[in-house]
Amino acid sequence: MGYMTASPGRRVLLAAPRGYCAGVDRAVIAVEKALEQYGAPIYVRHEIVHNKYVVRTLEKKGAIFVERTAEVPEGAIVMFSAHGVAPVVHDEAAAGKLATIDATCPLVTKVHKEAVRFAKDDFDILLIGHEGHEEVIGTSGEAPEHITLVDGPADVAKVEVRDPSKVVWLSQTTLSVDETMETVDALKEKFPQLISPPSDDICYATQNRQIAVKKLAEDAQLVIVVGSKNSSNSIRMVEVALDAGAPAAHLVDFASEIDEAWLDGVSTVGLTSGASVPDVLVDEVLEWLSARGYGDVETVKTADESITFSLPKELRRDLRAEAAALVAERTGER
């Protein structure tokens, strides 16, 4: 794309990687494919990903977002978001005679499986994450009697376990790496025999985007993160930028939300986006900045990303027929 103007000394440092991760890309495409394959409406439990623009775009195509499974009409198709759901939600869908598509990110599914395995071995599981986040609710639901939520280092003092020799930590995938390890260090001080998960639970994309924003913070007087207010990974990126030394950092959904006063005295703007943000929103910010003299754009690359995930297996079946059969079974029509 072309940029309008460039003023001497003014530039934009554009982070790479940024934007969609493999799990988000998979989930968004899954909704589009389901609409194309089965027709509207497709119900989605919670926002498919935490991005206002993506949700609005999919709504226009025929997706209906609901907060509770009970809101989905009998015999309809419901998709579970990239953040995952607890087993009880699958039970609710079955009871409601719903055909389901599970768009849970495979990295979140990995954490769910770890929770189930450690619970089976009767471990106390300390789940590092933010209370009320959909991913935390889903993971906790896998083994509620074994899982204790630890919402940051300040929570560690009140954590109690049955047997300090059988304790493991897991984490929400979208947290700040630094914040998570600070909590882990505090937990290890209290529980020296604390076991770490077999692999790092922080999502590769979350980690890569945080490394990139730290690099931006070295030179930018202002860092703009494109992302929604309910996006955990986007919020963390603002915090990481400030912790890394950026004098100012702000989260915006759209270019129109940028305050021109933020540019006062700023020669270098760092620009990045959360893992659920499409490139079109970043392009709009670049155009907005270009119109104000920041037309010199330099890409700051800190990692290559080539990971892709296959679409949910349910998209290879005739779910409308399955839903109708479920309803017929209840009503005795077959």
Would you kindly provide a written description of the structure presented here, covering whatever features stand out?
The protein is α/β, with parallel strands linked by helices. Helices cover 37% and strands 17% of the residues. It has helices at residues 22-38, 52-61, 87-95, 106-120, 134-140, 177-190, 204-217, 232-243, 279-290, 319-331; strands spanning 11-16, 42-45, 63-66, 77-80, 99-102, 124-128, 147-150, 167-171, 222-226, 248-252, 268-273, 296-301. The strands form 3 sheets. Strands 10-9-11-1-12 form a 5-stranded parallel β-sheet, with helices on both faces. Strands 3-2-4-5 form a 4-stranded parallel β-sheet. Strand 4 (77-80), helix 3 and strand 5 (99-102) form a beta-alpha-beta unit.
